[in-house]
Specification:
alpha+beta; 4-stranded mixed sheet; 4 strands; 36% helix
Length: 103
């Protein structure tokens, strides 16, 4: 595991989930909310309501593709998403474009 990932996971421990995924699942509004959160912070914790491990993994992966961002950790009902600083373009308008691709 590289040092950057270890450092990011360490930083994420202090965070509380700021985005909650409910029964509606991953909607356009949720994707916009995650993009806005990542525009202000490089890490965002997302809590998934009432799903099993496989469903959470699939939903976190789908959310990572739609935002786009990288899922760096998942524990229980919570996933941690990462986007490098300044990687999202025109977040307020909900643009799908990125300046650079997230690894």
């Amino acid at each position: 595991m590289d040092q950057e990932l270890i450092s990011l996971r360490r930083q994420a421990r202090q965070l509380k989930p700021s985005v909650h995924v409910g029964r509606a699942g991953i909607t356009d509004a949720l994707v916009r909310q995650v993009r806005q959160a990542l525009a202000h912070n490089i890490l965002v914790k997302v809590r998934f309501a009432g799903a099993n491990r496989d469903e959470i993994d699939a939903a976190a992966g789908a959310l990572g593709e739609r935002v786009p961002c990288r899922v760096i950790e998942r524990k229980g009902f919570v996933a941690v998403l990462y986007a490098p600083p300044h990687s999202l373009v025109n977040v307020s308008a909900g643009s799908d474009e990125m300046q650079s691709e997230v690894k």
